[in-house]
Write a structure and sequence with these properties.
Strand order of the largest sheet: 1-7-6-5-4-2-3
Structural class: alpha/beta
CATH architecture of the largest domain: 3-Layer(aba) Sandwich
Number of helices: 12
Distance between the termini: 58 Å
CATH superfamily of the largest domain: Type I PLP-dependent aspartate aminotransferase-like (Major domain)
Order of helices and strands: HHHEHEHEEHEEEHHHEHEHEEEH
Radius of gyration: 22 Å
Oligomer: single chain
Shape: globular
Number of domains: 2
CATH class of the largest domain: Alpha Beta
């Protein structure tokens, strides 16, 4: 069955029945006999779909877990209240005091903050490595246990050679975790490319309507066992309303991403022609340094891209003059967004960009492309007239 068809039928109950699984809110699950109660407790140890107690999720969350596991190609998937919660839970499940791990230099800033502010307190250390590395040997210590990657990279969209990197990591006995929020399980398949764990902030494209906070981790092998055990012992789950909204959003995931991709590429190409623009950062553009890897491993792109302006251009003033691009720190919803970014603050290196260039990150929403381009044109014109 094709993936597009699966999206339409994940979690559907038997017929006759509703098109979407109902929202089941429950803490206590009632039994008539002690034998039934004990049987459920035994069954849940090997089957996450068993309804036993609200802390393990209800049938609404179970349907979403099965859907994400299938979408990502994992042996299982576990749900969390936010994407950062999923990232932190995975790292806590896989690392122990005294361990060392590797973190790609282009990682989401909040991930690095968790490593600095929390893991360090437990005696877990990390080193950064560049996104173009494929041989991890120079960075590995005897106590290295894990590699955390993100491709395309956060904010500036560097593309990693995941098959080559995963081979190097596995040759050294390391677990590979990927932040797959950009692709949201649809455009990019880290587990198929060799990673052991894929983490998604479903707050973005899975929900798709700017009204859900959630995270998910899908995994294979020993990593899956450890993440599952960690989720159970720490009581990690997702409320049924959020699970329902995410699963409902997934029905249109492929269609929405097609529109996001089309709009973003047209905007990126239009901006490439502006004299105010030094460089557009988008992996689907042929000039992007990682374009060949992206074309090999990905099935498409989303609505995100960043624009580095020529030195001296006031990018903030441009953002303030936009009317259809709202300022907001998330993305993946139906709306267009813009926000200033300063990736150099969080990177050991930032190659290929002017040092004093101001950068804006755009998210192309589902509006008509003509209106989005007109909004940009009007903002550029107003800024030019004011100078």
């Amino acid at each position: 069955m094709k993936r597009e068809t699966k999206l339409c039928h994940y979690g559907q109950p038997g017929l006759p029945g509703p098109a979407n699984p109902p929202v089941v809110r429950a803490s206590t699950i009632l039994h008539q006999t002690l034998e039934s109660y004990k049987a459920r407790k035994t069954a849940r140890e090997s089957d996450d779909s068993v309804l036993s107690y609200g802390r393990r999720g209800t049938t609404t969350a179970h349907a979403l877990m099965e859907a994400i596991a299938d979408l990502e190609g994992g042996e299982g998937a576990w749900l969390y209240p936010t994407g950062v919660a999923a990232i932190s839970a995975v790292l806590m499940a896989l690392l122990r005091p005294g361990d060392h791990f590797l973190l790609v230099d282009t990682i989401f800033a909040a991930t690095r903050t968790f490593c600095d502010d929390v893991l360090a307190e437990f005696g877990v250390r990390y080193d950064l490595f560049p996104s173009d590395a494929t041989d991890l040997t120079p960075y590995i210590r005897p106590e290295t246990r894990l590699v955390f990657v993100e491709s395309p990279g956060s904010q500036t969209f560097e593309v990693m050679d995941l098959p080559a990197l995963c081979k190097s990591a596995h040759d050294h006995g390391l677990t590979v975790v990927a932040d797959n929020t950009y692709a949201s399980g649809w455009l990019y398949q880290p587990l198929a490319l060799g990673c052991d764990v894929s983490v998604i902030a479903g707050t973005k494209y899975l929900g798709g309507h700017a009204d859900v906070m959630m995270g998910a981790a899908s995994a294979t092998g020993e990593a899956a066992q450890k993440i599952r055990a960690g989720a159970i012992v720490t009581g990690q789950t997702l409320a049924p309303d959020e699970a329902y909204a995410t699963l409902r959003g997934m029905r249109t995931l492929s269609l929405r991403l097609e529109r996001h991709e089309t709009n973003a590429l047209q905007l990126a190409r239009w901006l490439e022609g502006r004299t105010e623009v030094a460089r557009v950062l988008h992996p689907a553009l042929p000039a992007h340094p990682g374009h060949a890897l992206w074309a090999r491993d990905a099935s498409g792109s989303n609505g995100l891209f960043s624009v580095a302006f020529v030195p001296g251009f006031d990018a903030g003033a441009l953002a303030d003059r936009l009317r259809l691009f709202y300022v907001g720190s998330s993305w993946g919803g139906f709306e267009s967004l813009v926000m200033p970014i300063a990736p150099a603050r969080d990177r050991a290196s930032l190659r290929g960009l002017p040092e004093d260039s101001q950068i804006l990150r755009f998210h192309a929403g589902l509006e008509h492309i003509d209106d989005l381009i007109e909004d940009l044109q009007t903002a550029f014109d107003a800024l030019s007239e004011s100078q």
